[in-house]
Amino acid sequence: MRVTVDPARCSGHGNCVAAAPDLFDLDDDTDIAAPRKSRYAEADRSRILDAVTDCPAAAIAVDESST
Question: What CATH number did the domain enclosing 44 receive?
Answer without folding.
Answer: 3.30.70.20
